[in-house]
Write a structure and sequence with these properties.
The complex is a heterodimer of chains A (33) and B (440).
Chain A: H1 2-29
Chain B: H1 3-27, H2 37-59, H3 64-67, H4 72-100, H5 115-140, H6 144-169, H7 176-206, E1 209-217, E2 221-228, E3 241-246, E4 255-259, E5 270-275, E6 292-299, E7 312-318, H8 322-335, E8 341-347, H9 356-365, E9 368-374, E10 384-385, H10 390-396, E11 404-410, H11 412-424, E12 432-436
Parallel strand pairs in B: 7-8, 7-11, 8-9, 9-10, 11-12
Antiparallel strand pairs in B: 1-2, 1-6, 2-5, 3-4, 3-6
Helix pairs in contact in B: 1-2, 2-4, 2-7, 4-5, 5-6
Classes of the chains: A mainly alpha (33), B alpha/beta (440).
Amino acid sequence: MRYRLANWLAALLSAAIVLAAVLVALFQSGQQP
Amino acid sequence: MNHNKRMGILWIVLYLLFALAPLLFMLVGERPMGRDFIRELSVAFGFVGIGVMALHFVLTARITAVKMPFGSDVVYYFHHRMAFLTLALWLAHPAILVIKYDWAQGLLNVFTAPWFARYGVLAVVALLLLMALAIGRKALKMEYILWRMLHGALAVIAMALVMAHVYLVGRYVGTPLKQTLWLVYGGICIALVAYLRIYKPWQMLQRPYRVIEVRPEHGNVWSLALEPVGHEGLRFQPGQFAWLTAWRSPFAAHEHPFSFSSSSEQKGRIEFAIKELGDFTATIGQLEAGQPVYLDGPYGAFSPNRYQDVDTLVLIAGGIGIAPMMSILRTMADRGDRTPVVLLYGSQTWEMASFREELEELKKTLNLKVVYVLERPPEGWEGETGYVTQDVLKRYLPAPPQRYRVFICGPTPMLDAVEAALKSLGVPEQLIHMERFDLA
């Protein structure tokens, strides 16, 4: 149970982290002169 | 919501914030002009990769408050899972640049590239080596202590190289505000390493223990009894474990995790049951009474003490997985706890079943049923044979509407097999508790 939760949590946090990086890249690339 | 759950959620939120902090540092204050999306994506992956890497120092720093809501084994398991994301991000950062831009290929040559790129490439190489050793340690038959030292050293080297890379690239660390934020961030990582490798050993040195008895048990197992010297000793819950340092100073980082096997009700005496499996455990029998040893603990969430909602306790042990079960049973005996207990004890042979005489004695004071499951039974054996399978479990699990919880400790293949068998029998997942030895 705890291990399955840890698996889910790892997947969820990984997705959130990658998404945040994509959003920051989108935002920053929109700041071109 | 109980305290552990609240703390668990708090740590998860803090984890995300700490991982994303380098991205926030990119955005705060004065920013350089943006470039095309692919290039900024590569940078963002690199920064967030540093955040996730930094968190491995937190996960492995043995901070009790972090481990308590989840259990140490799960925190290590999570550390292993997130390692793959870390590597993916660290590889994605240069890979994106090299695939998209021709000029980036030259940055991979550590002999000709500018220093900022050399540091970056070497950081990725250090991380790749670290991961390869972590995955291949057993196949390579590398000694645990040597591996652990390399693991820690490579992590620190990779982190130092990547920080040098960020500093020399300089694009997102150009302002005093950003530099301050990065200094604080780097400082936290250094503080965590210092906490684990300097403060904790110092604390252990202040609270030494002395060997009072080394007793041989069946099955190449030693019972190691200790007493605190000049302090009260640690208090633990049955089922928990501690890191033991013997023969060396705690600063040498030669420590190994072992489950307590004694009663948690016994003050001033702590016992471990240790099986001779590797280089360190083979030396336990040579420890002499009076010899100083050091403990760091207790750790672990594998304890029936956390749950008060059972009619029956089902304990399933494989091999030296009997150690925490002995602690649970001895504690129950000292407390006069008459909760029914079924112990399924998987052993290769009857001779190797440790503590069998004491288990017979414990049956007299506890409401205990012991079922031995022998892989190679002696002639005339009428008990269970083979492994702890679904059929065996079906025969001994309490019948509904009895409320029970199952605690399993043993080698990983056994844990996986027993967990699957229990699930097939309809035992709800939240009632199954396991302790994996494989913390490395």
